[in-house]
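Could you join me in thinking about how sequence relates to backbone shape in a protein? We need material for that, and I hope you will provide a protein of your own picking. Once you have written the record down, we can walk along the chain together:

…
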Amino acid sequence: MTKADLVERVTQQISRTAGPMISKKDCARVVDAFLDAIKEALQAQKNIEVRGFGTFKIRHRKTRMARNPRTGSPVEVSARPVPVFKPSKELRAMVAELEPLEGAVEDWDDDHEEEEMSEA
């Protein structure tokens, strides 16, 4: 789903529940303002908790050693802050009820996620 798709969906939701009170252009401004507020809070290193959805926060990664994929030589990756999103229990439960897509490859497991989140 792209931002344009999100704007379209939100506009439709509002039109269904409250009548045609908001234009697509105004809805796009609201979505942009919401995303800008998240960016600004993360830039200020504040957590953003949206109850029932999840938490956006900054995690500080430690300096680590990696390998150059072309040469295989070791390369130091410096410490840096990275944005992360932790879904709420409600969102995780909703997604857990979904049927897997045909041909989908499992690339993440809950144990790894819990280890990753506990490092923060």
